[in-house]
Amino acid sequence: MHKFLKDYGEWKQKSVFECWLTPEAYENMKAGIKRIFKPREDRVRIYRLCETCRKKAFSYGWGELPDDFEEDVIL
């Protein structure tokens, strides 16, 4: 799962990824997770940030967000 998710976002810590996705990339990521997911071994939670939540969030460092993302997703 880790190797797969590295193609969609940045690994932050342990099993946490932060992704900035277009709607199409988001759907592709979910489909890929379903393909490789092992229900008795894995647990995947997807937290989507709405526009209001995104405006309230802040971060330090790590450069700027890409201009072309439409969806914040924390896994």
TrEMBL record:
Cofactor(s) this protein requires: Mg(2+)
Signal peptide boundaries: none
Classification via CDD domains: Cas2_I_II_III
Keywords: Antiviral defense, Endonuclease, Hydrolase, Magnesium, Metal-binding, Nuclease
GO molecular function: hydrolase activity; metal ion binding; RNA endonuclease activity
One Pfam family from the record: CRISPR_Cas2
Swiss-Prot/TrEMBL GO biological process terms: defense response to virus; maintenance of CRISPR repeat elements
Similarity remark: Belongs to the CRISPR-associated endoribonuclease Cas2 protein family.
PANTHER family from the UniProt entry: CRISPR-ASSOCIATED ENDORIBONUCLEASE CAS2, CRISPR-ASSOCIATED ENDORIBONUCLEASE CAS2 3
Stated name of the protein: CRISPR-associated endonuclease Cas2
